[in-house]
Predict the 3D structure of the following.
Amino acid sequence: EVRLVESGGASVQVGGSVRLSCAVSGFPYSRYCLAWFRQGPGKEREGIAAIDSGGDTRILHSVRGRCTISQDTSKNTVFLQMNDLKPEDTRVYYCAANRRLYYLLPQYTYWGQGTRVSVSA
């Protein structure tokens, strides 16, 4: 069974930072894409960062410069570092995995339950 478990969500002030983690287990493919999506109330789920098994990354243009995705393959964990947080970053953040290289497209098969980030002034 494939499981993705996110952690690291927090309530932070404007300008602060968070580092989200996603532990992946049971994923049987050596070629894959891992991504972070986010969703707010009444909004579509938005892909913001992705990394593939070769280490190539994609970052949503609107968060470029504030957001970094990385992975620790020895721990089957993917990270999302977000800096200079703004109120509009308040969302639930989801981790996703697929053997196809979907990058920021939403057609992922496996999803975590999400972790909440709240940014206040």
Q: What stands out?
A: DSSP finds no helices and eleven strands in the chain. The chain has a mean pLDDT of 97.
